[in-house]
Design a protein that fits this description.
Strand content: 25-35%
Number of strands: 25
Distance between the termini: 32 Å
Largest sheet: 6 strands, antiparallel, barrel
Helix content: 10-25%
Oligomer: single chain
Shape: flat
Strand order of the largest sheet: 3-4-5-10-7-6
Length: 371
């Protein structure tokens, strides 16, 4: 009974996590902003190399030559002559600073910065990032970053043991990057907008285009392919696209997609989409268990005899094969599929093998993705 109750609980989790409780029904309506991105509304990645100072002996080791070189260059730029061979970087760490700058960021805007160690520093806790220029993909400087790091963890230890919580070689500086140069882009001056869907599906693209045209009141939207829609800006919204997008991003659509089964073999997780169907197929699944047990016996000679103590090997082999009955499965929904698999006592691990075999036999009408 315990095994069957576990299977029933697994089936229930599948039904809840699959997609919707009303199996076989269309997915619920979602907002356009939740399944699409709009042309020009994107972030730009910035990156820079800098130094974190003020560390309590947890910085880079003397073997990190690039840290020593960076320290010497920084001090020389400030008018301090140093002997590079005498520099000890244990209170300094070389880091990379990354920032995501939205297209709407303007000079003076503050952005969060992520600071990551590139040397052999053990912790960035308590450190301060010196002024670091942040460059875009074109090599131009768009922001400057500086400030005290916030590290969400700690590391402490001695000669025999250490205690660590979370990652101490990555920190953040909230609002630590100041935009010095904006991306040359004017959103309101566009003549048309590209709407990029997060799913590639022709019926969804057509549905979105039809919904946009119905909401605007004209043939302004055209599906370019399975995941992108070109939207011409109506005359009344020329120069005021923000108002147009604000009225359209809450438009409700019902996204569709191909039937898919996703399997994570590392954890034994199986997720089935709502549109998964099954052709008529007979399934039988059983397990073969072979148990080998070693129980060595000790042979002890009699007292004062010339014999020696010997270990005699003793091996026991047990073979058990589960006899599972053949069951006919012809499901039109996940419910019938899960019921059929439960009828033969399939566990989550068994389910992975069964689904793969069904796909090879052409009985599973869905894409099978193993991650």
């Amino acid at each position: 009974m315990c095994g069957h109750s576990k299977i029933r609980r697994f089936a229930f989790l599948l039904l809840v996590l699959g997609l919707s409780i009303g199996l076989g029904l269309p997915a619920g309506a979602v907002r356009l902003k939740d399944i699409a991105s709009f042309g020009g509304v994107r972030s730009n990645d910035l990156v820079g190399y800098g130094l974190v100072v003020g560390l309590p002996g947890t910085g880079d080791k003397s073997s990190s030559q690039f840290t020593i070189q960076s320290m010497a260059n920084m001090l020389e730029n400030m008018g301090v002559k140093v002997d590079r061979a005498a520099l000890k970087p244990k209170n300094v760490a070389a880091v990379m600073v990354t920032v995501k700058m939205p297209a709407s960021a303007r000079p003076g805007s503050r952005l969060d910065a992520t600071v990551s160690s590139v040397g052999d520093a053990s912790s960035l806790l308590g450190g301060v990032l010196l002024m670091t220029p942040l460059k875009g993909i074109d090599g131009s400087i768009y922001a400057l970053s500086q400030g005290a790091l916030a590290v969400g963890g700690f590391s402490a230890g001695g000669d025999a043991a250490t205690a660590t919580k979370n990652v101490t070689t990555v920190g953040r500086i909230p609002g630590g990057a100041v935009v010095e140069r904006s991306v040359p882009f004017s959103f309101n001056e566009q003549q048309d907008i590209t709407i990029q869907l997060s799913v590639e599906d022709f019926s969804t693209a057509k549905q979105v285009a039809d919904s946009l045209n119905k909401a605007i009141g004209g043939q302004y939207a055209h599906a370019q392919d399975a995941s992108s829609i070109r939207l011409g800006v109506p005359p009344q919204y020329q120069g005021n696209i923000v108002a147009l997008m604000a009225s359209l991003e809450s438009l409700e659509v019902q996204p569709d997609s191909r039937a898919k089964v996703v399997v994570d073999e590392k954890t034994g997780t199986v997720v089935l989409g709502a549109n998964v169907t099954l052709a008529k197929v007979a399934v039988s699944h059983g397990n073969l268990n072979v148990v080998v047990s070693e129980q060595p016996q000790v042979s002890q000679p009699g007292a004062f005899s010339p014999g020696q103590t010997a270990i005699t090997p003793s091996t026991e082999i047990g073979v058990r094969e589960e006899q599972r009955r053949l069951i006919l499965m012809a499901g039109a929904s996940i419910q019938e599929l899960v019921d059929g698999l439960n009828a033969i006592g399939a566990t989550p691990r068994d389910l992975i093998s069964i689904l793969r075999t069904m796909k090879s036999a052409g009985a599973l009408h869905a894409d099978l993705e193993v991650i």
